[in-house]
């Protein structure tokens, strides 16, 4: 052993020949839902297969669900979904908006939360939770905070992220310490961020909305009946945002979007609410989607494109979809508050 090597070994208090160990670090992993790699049917099929195979998403007996999934849905839905992704795909970076904004959130959080390894992953698709946890562990992260980017808790989202995290670490010989950040549906910084983004957007309009729909991703009613707190979290976020904005419940009704299948889902449905408001004579409408931390196919295509068409066909004259928090300064400040709170004692 040379003098330099001997000195290094002594300084690190490791015996000669010991495997290299990186300096201990703390990490933060942001996780959002997921996205196909390309707006093509094959990529969408792979993504939907992973997404809809998760028992947290569809909890029907496998003997009933899998034949439907593989025999019908994966043969019919990918082409139509791919066309919708193509409408909102970011051509300049060749990625979905969700991937773009989630990466930007991680990069900006890393810049503001110095000394912590910040990374990002998707629950379904790429980059996977397992691949990023492996990379963080290899980089020396012995303590990792996971922040599911779902403000309102649901077993279908937050719990599914936890499942994937612990499935990944149980394969590791040397596991990092793991913390899961809780839902932040009533965090003052989250509500203030929603209000700030909303005010900025409304100031850019040449019309004043007569109604603002608060639209959240839907959930089967049965899940709520079994104890999922998602509806309650959505209702509380809505109440707090209305209070911050000075809105009444009549002016800013709660609704749920993205239903699929025949099972009864949470109501009222966003598309039906849009249609009904148009029929009632409302001419100017805005929709905000507080449950989405980043703009994605559900906000940009389902609401801003399809929802707009529905409203105009029902007699509307002006429509706007209020952007999600994305990587705005308010969003990054909120994420930093959560990250610092949840890594207390680590950093």
From TrEMBL:
NCBIfam families: hemH. The keyword Cytoplasm applies. Keywords: Cytoplasm, Heme biosynthesis, Iron, Lyase, Metal-binding, Porphyrin biosynthesis. The keyword DNA repair does not apply. InterPro entries: Ferrochelatase (IPR001015), Ferrochelatase_AS (IPR019772), Ferrochelatase_C (IPR033644), Ferrochelatase_N (IPR033659). One of its GO terms (biological process) is heme biosynthetic process. Residues 1-21 are annotated as: Disordered. Pfam families: Ferrochelatase (PF00762). SUPFAM superfamilies: Chelatase. GO terms for molecular function: ferrochelatase activity; metal ion binding. This is Ferrochelatase. Fe(2+) binds at residues 217, 298. It is found in: Cytoplasm. Pathway: Porphyrin-containing compound metabolism; protoheme biosynthesis; protoheme from protoporphyrin-IX: step 1/1. Its EC number is 4.98.1.1. GO terms for cellular component: cytoplasm. Residues 1-12 have a biased composition (Polar residues). Belongs to the ferrochelatase family. It is an enzyme of class 4 (lyase). Catalyzes the ferrous insertion into protoporphyrin IX. It catalyses: heme b + 2 H(+) = protoporphyrin IX + Fe(2+); Fe-coproporphyrin III + 2 H(+) = coproporphyrin III + Fe(2+).
